[in-house]
C-alpha cells in the first residue's frame, strides 16, 4: 500500500508551554526512534503548509480564529478558553495550530487525489477543540477539519475511530447531525475522567441517529480486555456503515504509565490496536486509512515506542517487538530526562483476546453490552448474543 508520512520540524512549534503535558518532545523522540530503527528509510516526508482561514472555518467560527491570532498580545480570553491551565497562550499560537491542521488536510489530500492509500500525521489528532473555543490542549480541531475537507472532495461516508483515553468530543460535536460521518470513540468512562462526555447513550441527532458511537471502559482496563471490547463493537458497525475511508485518532494516553488517565494498556496493546486499524481499513474502507496522533503524556517511555509502531504499521514495516532500542536514541533521550528509559520495543504484555460471543462475567462485558444495546439495533444488528 502506498503511504505518506507528514512531517516537518516546524510542527514542534505547537508548544503550549515548557512544562505543559502535551510537549512536542514526544514527536521529536518518536521521529528519532523511527529513523534509528530504519522505519523511515527512503521515506520522503510530506511537508505541510498552514491551513488558510477558509479551511479552518470548516469547523471554527471566524471570531474564534481572530481571538487565537490576538491572544499573544491581548492576554487571557476566558470566552474562548485561551489562557487557561489546559490551553495557555503561546507566541505564534495561530500559525502553529494552523500548521497542524494543514498537515492533516495534506494527508487527506494525498489519499483523495490517489497518491497514497494511507497517510499519517502524528502532530494531528487535536480532537477536543470546539467550534468557538479551545478545549483540552487543542486549539484547532484538525481531525474534524480533515474530515470536512474529505466530504467536499469525493467522500460521502467517512468513519472516524478514536482510541484516545479521552472522549473524542470535538469531532463528535462537529458531526453530531451529519449521517455521512460515523464517529466511534473508545475511551475511559466519562464518570471517571475529563471531559465527562462519551456515554453509550450519546448516539447522534436527527437523521444521524446511530452514527455517534461511544464505548466507555472502566479505569484499569488492560490490553486483552480493551481489545475484546473493541472487537465486540467496532468491526460490526464498520461493516454496516460501509465507509469509504477510515480516519483514526491514535492517542497513546491509554498507556499504563500515562500521568493523566487510568487505563492500563501497554505499547504491545497499542501495536495491536494499530494493526487492527490497518486490517479494518483494508476490510471495510477499501484500504484507505488516515491516521492521526493525539494524546500521550508518558513522553519518554510510552509515546515514542507506541507511535513508532504506528508509523511502522502505516508503512507496512512492522517492527519486531523484541527489537532493541538503538543506543543513539537512548543517548539522546538520556540528555532530556533522568527517568529510566526503555530498552526494547515491547513490554512483553499478552495481547490475545477472547472474541465476544455474548455477555459473560468478564469485567468489560457490561460496558460492551451497554453500547451494543444502545446502537446496534439502529444498524440492524443483534446487540447481545451474536459475534457481529
What does this structure look like?
It is a single chain. It contains 11 helices and 7 strands. It has 388 residues and is of the alpha/beta class. A 7-stranded parallel beta sheet has the order 1-2-7-6-3-4-5, sandwiched between helices. The two termini are 27 Å apart. Helices cover 34% and strands 9% of the residues. Helix 6 links the parallel strand 3 and strand 4. The protein has one domain: Histone deacetylase domain (Arginase, Chain A, 3-Layer(aba) Sandwich), CATH 3.40.800.20. InterPro entries: AcuC, HDACs, His_deacetylse_dom, His_deacetylse_dom_sf, Ureohydrolase_dom_sf. Pathway: Ketone degradation; acetoin degradation. Keywords: Acetoin catabolism. This is Acetoin utilization protein AcuC. Belongs to the histone deacetylase family.
Give the structure's gist in a few sentences:
InterPro entries: AcuC, HDACs, His_deacetylse_dom, His_deacetylse_dom_sf, Ureohydrolase_dom_sf. This protein has 388 residues and is an alpha/beta fold.
- Kindly provide the radius of gyration, computed on alpha-carbon positions and rounded to a whole number of angstroms: 19 Å
How helix-rich are the residues, as a percent range?
Answer: 25-40%
Structural class: alpha/beta
Beta-strand residue fraction: 5-15%
Globally, the shape reads globular
Q: Characterize the biggest β-sheet.
A: 7 strands, parallel
Number of strands: 7
* Domain tally: 1
Which stretches are low in confidence, meaning pLDDT under 50 for 5 or more residues running? none
User: Order of strands across the widest beta sheet?
Assistant: 1-2-7-6-3-4-5
